[in-house]
Each structure stands twice: as structure tokens, then as C-alpha cells.
Queue: 2 jobs
Job 1
Amino acid sequence: MSVSPTDMSLTPYSFSVIMPVYYEGPGVIPAVTTLMHTIKYRFELVIVYDKEDDPTVGILQGMSKDYANLRLVRNTEAGVISAIKVGIAHSVGDNVAIWCAYHVDPYGILNQMYEMILSGCDVVSANRFGKVMRFSRGGLIKKILSRGGNFILWRLVGSQFGDTTTSIKMYRREFLEKHPITTHAAGGWALSTELAMKAAVNDYKLGEVVLSPHNINLIRGLSRFKVVKFLPHYLKWVMYGIRNRDAIFNNRLIRRENART
């Protein structure tokens, strides 16, 4: 069953976390419980599902009895991008973070990301490509594509983010309201790239938390990245960045090394 947005006056959350799920099954349990036990600020977890017969829904309904800040919302369409949009629309926090249902973070990087928001940043991104953690998690092909795609955005386009495509980001709600999401296909990486590029071009304050190898662990599975299908969406934002390279170059990013707490 879906849940309507809660009255903001009754829920003064520091931020909302949006988590799309799709047949995660018991794998969702460590992702949820880790967030619940590592985030030290008041937050809500809005979980968006596609289908009522997804066994993940029953598991989460049981968990919601223990976590009053966990809410389930039915996706209005299919797919992760729609799920993120629906989650944002149903969330009530002044800031919004995106989290993957198959990621466990035992060190609570969302704490650091929120603290950077408090310090004045408008968009804060995780970075999987620091000195210690050179590659994203997942299979070899996915690692190469992810690293290569971000390298092009960094060197050719001038993106200040070292990891433009990662979905793990936190946004001020006022930024999201001024820059509606236009991406309608591909995956969460495309939506993340769109918002990151718009933030850089429009002179928003950018922040980045560089991950250590301990921060993000995959519970199971890999991303469903399809090169031929998704390439046009990637190239769209590459060209957008090239056309606005001067604006991106003049922006600056605050980087926070090592998110371990």
C-alpha cells in the first residue's frame, strides 16, 4: 500500500533518503538496518517499489513496525528514475539523498554529506575514485565503463565532481525544485549526471565525500548497465557540459577525504 506525504510540521527531518527497490528480497534488510543505525541525524527513509507482489514489500512492511521513519510508496510507473521522482515528491525533508537498496555503508557517509550541506553546499556527491578506492564495485566491465565515463566528464568537460555518475548524492530541496528532472530513461546514473551537471553549470556550491574501501559494500547483484542503450543519454550531458565548460570551470568543489567515522 502506498503512503501519502506526511505533514512537514509534524516531521522535522534533517533529510529524506530515497531508496528504490525491485525484488531485493531479504537483501534489503542490511541496507535498511545499516542506515538506521549509522545515521545520527533525524531522517526519513522513503522506499519506493514497483509491484505489490514484490516480496520485498512484505519484508519492509514488517520492518516499518520497528522504524517509524520508514515509509513505503508505490511507484506510479516502472523503473528507477520514476521511483526516484516519486520518492522525492513524497518526501518531506529539506534535503534529499539517494541510496541504493544493494549498498551497505557501515560508516554512515550520509552524516558527512549532510554536514557538508550544513556548511553551505547545495549538492554533495560520494566519490568512489579516490587515492585508496580507485574503482567502483562490481564486475570488470562495469568498473571500466564507470571509471572511463567519469574520467571523460572530469577531463574533457571539466566536471568538478570526481564521480559525476554515482547515484549516492544529497541535494537541497530548493535546488531540486528549481531544476526539474528531465531524464526519463536509462538508470539512476543518468539522473545523477543530469543534476550534477546542472549544479555545476548554474554555480551551485558543490561538495564531495571521498569513500574509503570500507564505506560501500554490495550486498548482492550488479547494475544493469547496457552500453548501446544508455550511451546517447550519457553523450547528451557530455555535450551539455562542453557547451557550458566555462561556467563549470569557474565553479569550485569542496572535498572531504575519507568518510570513515
Note: The chain has two domains: 1-101, 106-261.
Job 2
Amino acid sequence: MKKPKKLDDKNCAILRLLQENCRMSLTEISRNVGLSVDSVKKRINKMINENVFFPKIQLRPRNFGYNNVVDIKIKIQNYNEEEINEFITYLKEHPRVVELFSIAGDWNFSIVIIAKDALEQGRLTEEIRNRFSKIIAGWSESLTTKAYKFEEYDMTKLME
């Protein structure tokens, strides 16, 4: 098990500011946390190198015509290592599968797919279900209508 990262109050404040506005300038961050620009830059780079966070942007698929954002839970059965690896590789490489998680509980996998409309959503899910019908034992899907909170962490509270 990995040893948890220890973050001080300054790093927690930097992370909070970056979550609020990832385009915030180093100058503005330094003013808010009471450190020099160089210190903020070094801290950010160190946190990136230690995998505390990944600098990336979050796209909004609906702005690009993908109106159906679908959360799918999958239960698998009767599989061997080759079949599960093929399943995972297929989903990882599929351009409409935007998230893929192995999970514990009633379901084995959680995936998110994007589709332009209900017809395309049906084709995509049918394609996956048919291709892996031998190992898929259960399937549940739900259409995401609105995101109220997505990967937002208050590190000051989590580090307490």
C-alpha cells in the first residue's frame, strides 16, 4: 500500500486555487498563498512529479455535440486472463469510452461513454455487449443529465 502524501497548508491552498481556476497565473497564486513565484512554481512541479495531481483540462463533451454522457456498470463472469485483457484494451482504445474503472462491489467495471444521441448510444452499447457477450453477465446504464461536482477536493480538510 502506498504511503499517503503529506501536504502542508501552502500546498493545499495552491491545489484549491488550481482547482478553482487552472489557468491562474503563478503571480496570482503566489499573492494568494504568501509565497514567491519561484516557490509556487517549485511546489507545483514537485507535486506533479510526485503524482499529487495531473495537469490536464476537462473537456465538456456536450459542447462538441455529444449530448449523451452515459455511466455504465458492468458485471463480468466466466473469463480468463486473455479475455479480460482484450476487454480492457478494447475499452481503453475505444474513442467513445472516456472513462474506465475497475471497481469493487456489485459491479466489476464502471465506464463512461459519450454519444451524439440515443441512436448512437444504442449502437455503441450494443457493439460492446455483443462483442463481449461471453463474459458480460450484467449491465446497467444511466444517462448523466447534469454534473454538480466533479473531482473537487478540499485538501485542507482531507489532510486533517
Note: The domain at 9-57 is CATH 1.10.10.10 (Arc Repressor Mutant, subunit A).
